[in-house]
């Protein structure tokens, strides 16, 4: 059985959550190739150096500098996104014809399907979150996404079938079309850090190496803006801190304070050890990160990407569930981080 895996290139989360899926395909004896663009290549090279990588066109997304511009940015870039979808579909058809793949596995790439193959699509967003002012249009978003997913044979949702799971209303939708609803398969949260292996990392009661550990992710310029805000705050907080910059393949590191350790990227075991050795973790509430942090039992402060309504929804719902605390990016400071961290100590278990 030959399988081609193609994750979306909007940050590394889509690629990281395919890692346990790829491992499972390999355990079943399948031949797996990877269709990559951008920094996914370096990430996969560290995890699966033996697998062939095929470079394909990416979406090359760069978020607006101000979060409130996101709806206008989406409208402005709609034609570009449609062109990439058409291009990736043609690439998928060509690769299926030339290499004879049995399964095409797409993580949120709408166009990555081909006639004659079994086409699997993975997403946690059956419902696309809209800004509060436009929430009445979410039904239209559900219908549009359904129209895109109809091209696939199976829809895999990395969450629990029982509401609310981890993603709440994003991953749980009732469809009037029974035939389409039968395509939906809840496969449980997917993390490269399996709970079975979590015990081998530093125990919860061990002395913590880092007071704060920040995990950066997502497209520019928001990734850099997040990093700069954290560096300013950490410079004023006593103790050792670390930032994993989310830049696999990058060689250079910027100068910073002696009590702040920077990593461009850490491989799976080292990443997990860093998280388990941190008292508090600061990150975006991207869904892949949420799944990882749940498995690693991290105490999280989530900072949604400005204007990214999915992360705002996930951050709020996880805070209400007592799993994490929430800050906006403009609130980041030494005082706010310390106050929020203290509140984490009394969170619900």
TrEMBL record:
GO MF terms, alphabetically ordered: transferase activity
Protein name: UDP-N-acetylglucosamine:LPS N-acetylglucosamine transferase
Keywords from the named record: Transferase
UniProt keyword Hydrolase, yes or no: no
A Pfam family that the UniProt record links to this protein: Glyco_tran_28_C
Ranges for domain Glycosyl transferase family 28 C-terminal: 270-347
Taxonomic lineage from the root: Bacteria, Pseudomonadati, Fibrobacterota, Fibrobacteria, Fibrobacterales
